[in-house]
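Example 3.2
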Amino acid sequence: MFRHSFQHRFVTVYSSAGSKPLTIWDVHTKNGHTRRLTDEDLNSLVFELIGVNVATTFMVAPCAPCPSLSIKLPFLVMLLKNLKKFFSFEITILDDRQSLRRLRLSNYQSETRVHCFGIAMPLSLEPNWNDVRLNLADLTRRAYGTNYVEAVRIQIHANVRIKCIYFSDQLYTNEETPADLRLVRPLKPSRAHHPRTKMGKIPDEPIEMVRPPSPELQREPENIATEPEAIRPPTPEVTPPTAETAAPTETVETAEIAETA
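Structure, written as tokens:
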């Protein structure tokens, strides 16, 4: 399927974010269900496989009639969610002896078993989402003493949720991986970035409030001279006019009036 494609760094075989994520996959369901839904932890679309029997509910790539994936990149990365149920997946590879080897991993096995054409290995998953990474070249060399050539087939069984499955030429950090292939969880909003959270809920209608009166400003006392009171000159007293001082004035005014007459 990917034999004539340019395989550089990443080759994605499944991504739940696409419009048609099951283009190269066949889905088989018996006594179970398969669906695409929004995961509550990642807040993104994922594909879910649930079945009573692990062997009868699965998805496999490539779909018929294509015989092989023909992916030469040696690292397999799967973003899976542990549903605390039985789960297994297997991948068929081709080595330099032109022999097909099947690697099967499951969470209900306790020991590793190596057969002529297959390996059964235990798979330990943490609660919630997991980033499963397999070095197919190293597993082939350690189990059979041969070299890895390409991945032929991959099959995912129930019970699991899948976000992404891809191959890579080496293991990359989260910053080096494309955004659609990361296991990113939404961050909780911080109060420092949302100042509205400090104000509380904004009412639908404005609330009328009586504005309190402004406090009166007290006048500051005028500057008082620093001289002592003993040195200050006494304030002159104004004496009201008496009858003796006012009589001559009236006499003069009477005489003036008599002369005029």
